[in-house]
Structure formats: structure tokens, C-alpha cells
Amino acid sequence: MAQESPQNTYVIQDSSFLPVRFYVGDIVELRLRLEVPGGDLRPPSDTSEGNWLVLRDITCARIKGQVWEVRIFFTTFRPGRHVLPDIDLGEIVLANLRAETRSILEDKGEEKPAGQKGQLLLPGTVRMLILAALVILLMPPFLYKAFRGGLAVLKSYNTLRLRKLPHSRLLRALDRLQTRKKDYDAAAFFTQITRLLREYFDGRLHIPAQTSTTLELRLLLLEALSRAHPSGEISLVTSGVIDLFQRADYVKFGGQSASPREMADVLDEVSQFVEKVEGVVKHVES
After folding, report:
1. CA 129 to chain centroid
2. For 165-186, what is each residue's pLDDT tens digit?
3. N or C: which end of the chain has fewer CB within 10 A?
4. Is 65 exposed, middle or buried (0-12, 13-18, 19+ CB in 10 A)?
């Protein structure tokens, strides 16, 4: 489908939404494959925000020749069919992009209010609570020992946590992977890299990285790092990591190959990214 923009003409070869069916408040990705006659595309520096829509992030990547892939991440807060605001990508202006947002209430239909619930506590619960309180008050020596034992356990746990900081664990794992990368094929190598990074993000940034999709992980990283250190560089670094996860998916599930040299480059990129994350987090902690 050819489109005219104030700057140039472009053709939308393909478009898709992830997820395909989305609702009010969902984080949605609109993926476009465009044919642009000339020039380079660049995402806008500022994204639009209104009372029914938030544009969270926009990326542009050249696939081959004049073919580009544009990804638009957004959230809508009103059900129905809507036209997204025009998006200026420098060489072209994307216009007339339509999205249909569904409502869970519409899918379920009208529901009657729930009836009155019965008692939440089982019979005798209050009596048992009073009895437990009396037992605790009459056993101070036991409580004292339990308190000291709890402090000892907490101290041991804290010492173990300090010895196994996520950063240190990741660096040691990367060193082992560096020395043994010849023992891994491409799929196994990228599986190890993404697993190590998810564990690191989970422990260091306290985000649910191990249970998140690549799309969810991108938004979680942007939110966590931008909140700690608002900077355009954070978006670039995060995009690089997400590109690594996407490439890993191509290798693991698409059958793409990777040479030992490419694996070494990936390890260097991961190390550089981790050091930048550490710098941001340590700055906030200090």
C-alpha cells in the first residue's frame, strides 16, 4: 500500500500487531515493513502523549536496500478504532495508522454485582489467635533465642548475598563462556548468553526478566534505567541488548549461524552494556 507524506513516498509491505488482539492498557507493538525510495529513517526525539494514547518507543532498522522495519510501541486507554498521530521519521511521515483497541468489559458483557459474601474467618479463629498471643507472651526465653537465631541467619544470608552479587556472578560466567566458547554451537552459546543476562537483570535491577518476553523486557529495561538516569544513551544501550535477544531468537529458532569471531564480539558487547548498567545503578545507590 503506497502512501504519500510531505517528504517522500513510501510503501507499506507488511504490518502486524503484537499481540494481535489487545485491550485498553496493554503494551502493544506495531511492526511495519516499509519500502522507502531514498534516505535514512530516524525515530523522533519526542513521542506523543495524549488522553487516550501513550507512544512509548519507536525504532527504525534498515533490513535491505530500501526496505526498513519500523517498530512502534504504544498503549491506548480508550476502546474502539482510532488513528495514531502522525509520526515524523525524517525522510517520511507515517500517517493514517489505525488500531482497534478492545475492552474486557465489552467482551464479557454486563455482569450483575456479586452477592454478599459470608464470613471470611473460620469459626474459632479469634479464640485461636488469642490463645497464640498468650503463648507468645508467656515464652520470652524462647522468643529471645528465636530473635538471636534470626539475626544469625540474617547475617549469614547477607554475607552470602554479598559474595554472590549479580555483577560478580555474571562476570565469572562470561569469563567461563569466553574460554569455552569453542565447545558451544551457535544455538547453545546464545542460549547461555540470554539466560545469564536475564538472571543478571533479575537480581541487579529487580525486574522479572526471567519470566518476561523480549518485548516486555525492552520496556522494563527502559523504565528501570531511565528512572535511574534519564539519558538518550540509555535508550540506545537498551536497544542494543534487545537486538541481541532478537538475534539469539533467530539463531535458536531460525537456524541462523554465528562464527567464533561473532560470538567473541557478542561477549564484548555484553560486557560493555553491563558496565554501563553498573555505572547507572551504583550512581543511584551512592
Report:
1. 43
2. 788 888 888 888 888 878 888 8
3. C
4. exposed
